[in-house]
Amino acid sequence: MSIPSIDEVAAAAGVHKSTVSRAFSRPEAVKKQTRDHVLQVAASMGYTMSPLAQALRTKTSTLVPLIVPDITNPFFAELAQAMTAAAGKRGYQLVLGIDDHGGATGGYLQAMQSMYAPFAIIAPFSRIDPADYERFGFGSRLVVMDRIESEHQVSTVTVDSGVGIRLAFDHLVELGHTSIAYVSGIAGTHTAADRRAAYLELAESHDMAPVEFDSGIGAEAGEHGAESLMAMADRPTAVIAANDLVAFGLISALGARGVRVPDDVSVVGFDGLPLGARSNPPLTSVQQPIAEMARIAVELAEHAAEDGRVEHVVLEPSLLVRSSTGPAL
């Protein structure tokens, strides 16, 4: 069954099509009896006004862009799902954009500005300067899900990476591990730098020689980390991965080489994804409060759109202990 046009609804209701349009976009401009009649006829015919058409008429929109670097990373898939729910509860519809190389964000913002998006949320591929996007007209109506260093301030939502790495490190130390490696594999954001810096500081404070593996992105980085680990004569007994996807690749590659997790090597991820409960073994991980991050990001974006407020929220992670960590041999 085809969707009826506004002309067909107007004919069925016995009014001009402009009255149908106003009944949806400016209901206060239509008499209640007429408005109720038009909406009832429209509902019976299965007609709803296109959000884009309504945006063009009113120069306002409920369409909100979320720009992420990699939808194949389960973290960003979880974030998009949580953001969709958070935006929906506040009357917005999420539009997902993917920028896997750092060059497409401007195009998304330009397109969404032409659709009168009230604000935008960015989970960046690498470190960004919000001033670079000022020409697209969002001003302070951007929320960045990373720490930023810029004179052009916008609101940010982050998780305390230092606290997260400390939770993982302390957990492994309590299990008796005295040599702990770190596998990177996330892009050059401030978040990535903060996690690495926290690891190096903790290794130094525990008189451990730092062992870093940084080759590739995501699961590939974990696979390369496993290769480097196996090439060492005196291997660390535990590894902290920069995120869960890196940890999945690491565990898989170690298993293919006959290395048992956690019997031979303990592994900790960083994200706390539900998918980690289904890995083999289930992944111990620093859990990011993804649903809370999404909710707060939408709230901060609304505040910025209302009065230009710039706010910075740093959330605390927690440690989700599963079966990929065990006592040092």
TrEMBL record:
One Pfam family, short name: LacI
Keyword set includes Transcription regulation: yes
Keywords recorded for this protein, A-Z: DNA-binding, Transcription, Transcription regulation
Stretches of the chain forming a coiled coil according to its record: none
SMART domains cross-referenced by the UniProt entry: HTH_LACI (SM00354)
One MF annotation (Gene Ontology) recorded for this entry: transcription cis-regulatory region binding
Annotated ranges, domain HTH lacI-type: 4-58
Keyword Acyltransferase: no
PANTHER family: HTH-TYPE TRANSCRIPTIONAL REGULATOR GALS, LACI-RELATED TRANSCRIPTIONAL REPRESSOR
Name of the protein in question: DNA-binding LacI/PurR family transcriptional regulator
The organism of origin for this protein: Herbiconiux flava
